[in-house]
Specification:
This protein is mainly β. It has one domain. It is 0% helix and 39% strand. Strands 1-2-3 form a 3-stranded antiparallel sheet, with no helix packed on it. It is globular. It comes from Brassica napus (Rape). InterPro entries: Swd2/WDR82 (IPR037867), WD40/YVTN_repeat-like_dom_sf (IPR015943), WD40_repeat_dom_sf (IPR036322), WD40_rpt (IPR001680). Keywords: Nucleus, Repeat, WD repeat.
Length: 44
């Protein structure tokens, strides 16, 4: 099995990840209290 994406813009552990079921957006949260929104159709 190969990873589908590597999140290089994080310095801490990703603690949560979720996808929007009606679009191509994904949101992540990490231990440094940051939240990031990705358009998985273009960003990854």
């Amino acid at each position: 099995m190969e990873p589908g994406a590597v999140f290089r813009d994080y310095n801490c552990r990703i603690s949560s990840i979720d996808f929007n079921k009606n679009s191509s957006y994904m949101v992540t949260a990490s231990d440094d209290d940051s939240i990031r929104l990705y358009d998985v159709a273009t960003d990854i």
